[in-house]
Design goal:
about 280 residues, alpha+beta, Extracellular Endonuclease, Chain A, about 25% strand, metal-binding, hydrolase activity
């Protein structure tokens, strides 16, 4: 059994990215979580995926606190009870479910620790479907030859995130997939945006009104973007330099920093995975 993220999983070693805070490191079967105990959410998850050894294991669907962490340092049932928030898996349930039957079963169960959850609006649209299928698409279409990926995921923990029940609800989530390509290490990055489609003043008004009512802040609909890895690093403060240097998504020359560099995805075929594809 491999406990935690393995930096040597790919042909090129990919170290666990440097945390932005004094995060608590939690190792699970085939994945690792860096828990931001102030926000009580993961700031980074890292998983090794062996696409050639994946197993089919039934869903657990029983969420639980990680006993290694004090209950008041992780976001548990009190955040999700009686509202329209989903417990969004950061490490996808099936991604670490590979290897021996025992390892796969253990990994499956461990993805249901609350340390691996983040609050997401409970609506489903095409962009959310794209987000949930990114790993599968990269495994199938990237120029990797051993069906192996290392995937890093987390919320963007912005101080301006709207408050709810003593927590702050992230509006952006990020994902970086890495693999060994034809010319060495390759990576691509993505953002899932659940910000409401409101102008700034209306969003502030709605957020304040719902906070006064004790309701969830305005969220959604989901939008998924392919973005430069460097933009994820800028948004999160995480140490993603190695992955940024291997990025296959190169913005057009002269593109400004920020959202103009981002590609809104309507279908998988828009994703840039190969050199010169953009």
């Amino acid at each position: 059994m491999t406990l935690g993220y393995n930096a040597d999983f790919l042909h090129t070693a990919v170290e666990l990215p440097r945390a932005a805070t004094a995060a608590k490191v939690l190792d699970y079967t085939h994945f690792t979580i860096l828990l931001n105990t102030e926000r009580r959410l993961a700031e980074l998850t890292a998983v090794n995926i062996d696409g050639g050894a994946l197993r089919q294991v039934g869903r657990d669907d029983t969420w639980r606190l990680d006993p290694r962490v004090a209950a008041n340092l992780q976001a548990g049932e009190e955040l999700y009870r009686n509202n329209d928030l989903d417990r969004g898996h950061l490490v996808r349930r099936r991604d670490p479910v590979w290897g021996s039957a025992a390892d796969a079963a253990k990994a499956n169960t461990e993805t249901f620790f609350y340390t691996n959850a983040a609050p997401q609006v409970n609506t489903f649209n095409q962009s959310k479907e794209l987000w949930l299928g990114l790993e599968d698409y990269v495994l199938e279409h990237a120029d990797q030859h051993d069906a192996r990926l290392s995937v890093f995921t987390g919320p963007v923990l912005d101080p301006a995130d709207p408050p709810y029940r003593g927590f702050a609800i992230p509006l952006l989530f990020w994902k970086v997939a890495a693999w060994h390509g034809a010319d060495g290490l390759a990576a691509t990055a993505y953002i899932l945006d659940q910000s409401p489609l409101l102008d700034e003043l209306e969003q502030e008004r709605q957020t304040a009104l719902r906070a006064a009512e004790g309701s969830t802040p305005p969220l959604g609909p989901f939008r998924t973007f392919q973005v430069p890895v460097a933009d994820v690093q800028d948004l999160t403060g995480l140490g993603l330099e190695q992955l940024a240097a291997a990025d296959r998504f190169v913005p057009a020359p002269g593109a400004r920093a920020g959202q103009p560099r981002w590609r809104l995805l309507d279908r998988f075929e828009q994703i840039v995975l190969l050199p010169g594809q953009a």
